[in-house]
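Troubleshooting entry. The earlier prediction with glutamine gave an output that would not parse, so I re-checked the input for stray whitespace and re-submitted. Clean input:
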Amino acid sequence: MALLKKPPAVLALEDGTVYYGYAFGYHGETVGEIVFNTSMTGYQEILTDPSYNGQIVTMTYPHIGNYGVSVYDMESNKPFARGFIVREFSRVASNHRANQDLQSFMEEHKIVGIEGIDTRALTRRLRQGGVVKGVIRHGELSKEAEAELVERARRHEDIDGRDMTPEVTTPLPYARPTFKDNPRVVVIDFGIKHSIVYKLEQAGAEVIVVPAQTTPAQIMALNPYGLVISNGPGDPDGPKYAHDTVWQMLGLLPTYGICLGHQLLGLAVGGKTYKLKHGHHGANTPVKNLVTGEVEITSQNHNYAVDIGSIPGGQFRATHINLNDGTLEGMAHTRYPVYSVQYHPEASPGPHDASYSFRRFIEEVNAFEGATALPAARALGDL
Ligand SMILES: NC(=O)CC[C@H](N)C(=O)O
């Protein structure tokens, strides 16, 4: 039997490194910032997590695609990752939950992939040198075309400093009517994952998701008892308007920031964020809860972090730290029921160690006496 000849593809990094592999997914070319993810499963959740907007993901787990794609595992309506790099792509999907295979899913959503890449070497390159931009192109390449691809990666706009929220936020607010007897929580959508909404509902909230540009007055007009500042893509320093919104909302409601939401909280109160060398992307990161002393294994997806020391006036205290590199993983306001985590408590994919935080947040929401209590505290000048 003749061996199936796989179509060629190339991955070129801005530092001049070129890898040869085989094409899969949508036929074409793509460019983005390359990050590695160490999750063993969850490729569909990863591809459809809006926080990967602008990034090409490489998986350290070597065999990808074997359980297909399921409508139940979407984290948003479509993939946001710009491209996918894997060691070995499985064209066969075997899973009773699958509605589609990964190949047709990627074709349908125009996601370009490359397989047959030494993803261990690529990951070591990213660990040692930090994140890089890269281009995937399907087809045979001449030497001159290689140089042109490297140049294309170099010239591609950096994620740093950009506001990506308009590319991911919902155009209109939406309410999920099923839970309307529960206390209302407004979620500002900077690129939310569906799992965060589900976890809030499971914990006992009625959730209304509003566009990123919603003003504090519009939020308060919905009579919420809690506020969630969602995850999302890009540099938290990019969406300046969001710092303003979060600052104006501070202390008005029990508030929970997740990932980008945590970073926006830090910036809103005058702190600083910085870019990590290669980010944290995976489902197995140990985080120490400084309140309980326990270690949680967490799901993570971020490239930036909050420098808690830069927050003026000691407004927040650290509640969680990353046991691998000591970076900040969670913080709580010293006076208000306002707190945030850098990791993903909804864990999709990943372990469920941190899901208690949704229940805790809803306890705060239930205990909240209404929107006049906290503003009064602010009026007394305690900020
Ligand atoms: N998952 C997120 O919300 C990511 C936050 C931000 N875009 C970062 O990379 O750090």
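This one parsed fine. Residues 12 and 146 are 7 Å apart (CA to CA).
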